[in-house]
Amino acid sequence: xAKEFGENExxxxxxxxxxxxFEYEGETYRVLENATKPTCGxxxxxxxxxxxxxxxxxxxxxxxxxxxxxxxxxxxxxKTNAExxxxxxxxxxxxxxxxxxxxxxxxxxxxxxIFKDKYQRTNAGSITLGWKYELLRVKSGELSEKLNLSYDQxxxxxxxxxxxxxxxxxxxxxxxxxxxxxxxxxxxxxNYASRVCEAVEQFKTIPEYLDDCPDIYYAxxxxxxxxxxxxxxxxxxxxxxxxxxxxxxxxxxxxxxxAPLVTGGKYAREKLLAALMELGVNSTDDLNKxxxxxxxxxxxxxxxx
Length: 305
Fold this sequence. Notes:
eight-stranded mixed beta sheet; 9 helices; alpha+beta; single chain
């Protein structure tokens, strides 16, 4: 998907060569430099395609700063950490995320956490460490709901208004251009664009895009420790994590909601491994009704396990 996305970005950029003219909302523009993708030292700005033009009527320079979205791509942010959440959601990011996860507390509390056998997409031998946080355009899974954001906050998510300076003021062809990383248009390629006019007719300002797609959703996706392989998917920030520990010689846990994205998979894994070591447990095969406090959280096919 990432490779395809990059190829499509480059294809659209190649349409806007220096000297190309196009019409947008009744005005004619000429491209002054080949369109390109803004870059920064670390991470990415919100602008995917930067097109510097001149308005042929007013003779004023105008930059089209476009966020490119494939029609089949629903992710807005799929690797959300605390820094990125603050840039997207503003100073209240922690309260927003904690409020959203607490609204699904019953769903979190009802989840299975230990998988002696395969369950849906979760491999046998897995133990849940917590849940990552993703922003999407659609609802996704049981731990997903509409995010309660103001109109301005939604604008910020798409535009990147709160991005740090190195992402706001990105590099364009080797030079830093003020606010080049803050997107003002969304280009969702619903119809394949092979010509400039076919691309431009699909440009929408971010407010126009929000008129069509007004909702932003969050989804919490499990990060699991795979006891058979002794692996997980790394130190991903967790919106909610499972605090594994031992109580009276049995594996016990608490689900923690008040430390969104500041606790990672590494911390949760270390707590789990310390508890398993204390119990002399190597994998889920060694867990049973005698050494697990809440055995109803265990997925198993054979009732004698």
